[in-house]
Amino acid sequence: MPYKLVALDVDGTLLNDDHVMTEQNMQTVMEAARQGIEIVLCTGRGPQNTIPFLEKMGLGGYVISHNGAATVEVETGNIVHQFAMDHMALTPFMEYCREKGVHFDINTAFGMYVDSVDALAGPIRYMYEKFLMLPSNLPAWEELEGPVVKFTAFGESHDLDEVFREWSQWTPVYNMLRSGEFFIDLMHEEASKGNALKQLAARRGYKPEEILAIGNYYNDITMLTFAGLGIAMDNSPVEVKAAANEITLSNNEDGVHAALMKYCLK
């Protein structure tokens, strides 16, 4: 099957553990694009710290950001689609985090907000610097530019395990998922990488069997199962590997390069 669209997760997939896109991965993705394959980055990141990876490769098109909550056109910055959350229902989650000392941020399509930027320090500040995104102070709800699309809690893995366990016992309001070892995301109940990819595929005129998707974590499962061929990285949890059709090398072994060479490039 000749694939017409390749959906790539970013952290843990396209990037290695040093958060670097290697030259080999970059050149192979660029070659796939030269051969007519549309490249779409699908990530938990926002557009601002995702689009530069495509620009570095000289590519345009679209990014599916915030784990599917907002799809953005690269060249124009236009929001093609977004799943707006009921931000008022976030109040108990915010109160829980403040009481328990769990850091959180609130995201619109292009904005990221925390209680106090001046209070950011240590691992929390390093996390934002590592992901190339410094937040702003959270204003009043009515002053936000655009709807809220994602709420993210950040902390040590064992602490978030407990948070996830407790929130799972609450009445479901949002789509809650682990988007990384140190993150829990809350989004609109219909927001996911798979749903966003489905909408973009319909917009672009692609059938699921014409799509190849590569990812490494729980937030990638919906896009791996939507695509005609879903490929999990070798560094994926066992549940992600089980949801995929194939497994490639790890993100530290240029697994994206290996997968594209095997399934896409002539």
From TrEMBL:
GO molecular function annotations of the record: magnesium ion binding; phosphatase activity
Gene3D superfamilies in alphabetical order: 3.30.1240.10, HAD superfamily/HAD-like
Recorded source organism is Paenibacillus lemnae
Which CDD domains does this UniProt record tie to the protein?
HAD_Pase
Q: What is this protein called?
A: HAD family phosphatase
GO terms for CC?
cytosol
Q: Which NCBIfam families match?
A: Cof-subfamily, HAD-SF-IIB
